[in-house]
From TrEMBL:
Record: residues binding AMP: K443, G444, P445, D446, T447, G476
Subunit structure: Homotetramer.
Pfam family for this entry, one: YjeF_N
Protein name per Swiss-Prot or TrEMBL: Bifunctional NAD(P)H-hydrate repair enzyme
NCBIfam families documented for this protein: yjeF_cterm (TIGR00196), yjeF_nterm (TIGR00197)
Species of provenance: Ruegeria atlantica
All copies of domain YjeF C-terminal, residue ranges: 250-531
Binding, K(+): N79, D151, S192
Amino acid sequence: MELLTAAQMRAIEQAAIKSGDVTGLELMERAGQGVVDAIFEEWPVLDRRGASPSRSPGYLGPDEEDPLRAVVLCGPGNNGGDGFVVARLLQKQGWAVEVFLCGDPEKLPPDARVNYERWGAKNEVRVSAVDSAPLADDFLRVPKGIDLVVDGVFGTGLTRPFAGAFSMLANAPVRDLLRDRGVKVVSIDAPSGLCADSGRILGQAIVADMTVTFHSKKLGHVLGDGPVTCGAVRTKSIGLETLEDGQIVHTTEADEVKLSKGSVGHKYSHGHALILSGGAGKTGAARLAARGALRVGAGLVTLGVPPSAQMEVASQITALMLQRVDGADGLSETLEDTRLNALCLGPALGFERARALVPMALAARRATVLDADALSAFAEDPGALIAQLHDECVLTPHGGEFARLFPDIAAQMNEQLANGPAFSKVDATRAAAKRAGCVVLFKGPDTVIAAPNGRCVVNSAVYERAAPWLATAGSGDVLAGFIAGLLARGLAPMQAAETAAWLHVECARQFGPGLIAEDLPEQVPEVFRKLNI
Ligand SMILES: NC(=O)C1=CN([C@@H]2O[C@H](COP(=O)(O)OP(=O)(O)OC[C@H]3O[C@@H](n4cnc5c(N)ncnc54)[C@H](OP(=O)(O)O)[C@@H]3O)[C@@H](O)[C@H]2O)[C@@H](O)CC1
Ligand SMILES: [K+]
């Protein structure tokens, strides 16, 4: 599945209009229809199409006398235009609809203007200036007895913080009031205030029960605050064609990470991963990574341990091999064995050991995962680490590690926002991959993976794939091990990272709540079995 930026979506729309296949007005009509269809699909109780009077008991009165009620909030752009269409279509179904517009009707873009006038010909529109004080009083009088609020204030055209008229809907007390009254809030395309490119909130954002978007999901639906503001996201086709293969892929299904029979199966397992461990008392993380590497199908997995930890590790492992690796010279010696084709350094490695081993590992030019301490140990001079990286590397930073390695990029991502579209985690990860010259996997519930060539994948554990229990100690170590194991199996760095991130979430979902990191590798066989791998 492809994720689009607002600019890409506009380009797709413009190409369709230019080709003469469709007009902007038709697209707006389809968008509005898509929203109404999604509402009825999501909440069938709101769908009274085809309801016969016999459906409601006589003593409650016929539906005509007891219409469903909606408030539609329209903004000054085409998102508002969609709102006017939704208002008209709901009214056609017998709903009582009140429409508010924030903005100057004279300045509406042409298609939105047409729909404003179609609605306004027979109905009232309550108009307020864009930057006026909240319409709170007016609005709060309305919700008594309403069933639905439609947010058509801002969509992909949000350019600055959401304030002024209508922003009261983003206030927690108002939202709570609506929720208590059972009022559903539906956002058109994106919750107003959410930047569709970054999933960052500009000012404040409406929290919707459902967001209906068109053609394809936008980045903002899955990144950052997107999942907490969008509610459920439904994507409706409006008859547009995708222009070219998108560069940002949303991995939710196995076929998106190209997992198929033979791709990671055990039958022809091969490869030999070396996982470097920290000292005594610090070996658990590397053991977790090693177990992960083994479970995803590396033929052999060796733990490289310093002398102080040899006894500890020897007593704890089965199916893994143990090799004494004492400092850079020891690693150099170990790597004389060219069958060791994938390395993993970082989990609880310790800064000192990391500074000694990482340069040696990188000089050996094997496929290499650098995680945790292998990244943080170079915080004082990230440039020195970056200069040694090569295109067979995969870096797996979480937010803190990312900021240590790429402080300027992180600062851009975290700066207070005055304007949109905002610099996103996708932008940040791509910039980092370009600078590092290798694959960067930026962890989080919205894991973003980028290659230096611009390919980018978002693997998010949100919505239907939510797995909050994955945020458990040691979970990242297992992920590093998964990647190392897949690299050992011969997958290219980007594919190894994409596949591992996907599997990681699947394993967490397979196990469910109560998960601890040790459980993750043990779910791999069941996940593979379900995929018939
Ligand atoms: N593209 C497609 O394929 C399709 C698009 N469709 C629909 O169109 C929507 C995009 O429409 P859009 O481009 O007109 O943007 P929209 O979100 O309505 O807002 C722009 C207006 O808001 C203003 N403004 C922005 N931020 C503000 C703020 N904080 N506070 C105050 N004002 C602010 C901004 O002002 P400006 O920045 O220009 O000064 C401008 O006037 C899209 O989400 C979808 O619903 C569908 O119909 C079908 C196909
Ligand atoms: K909206």
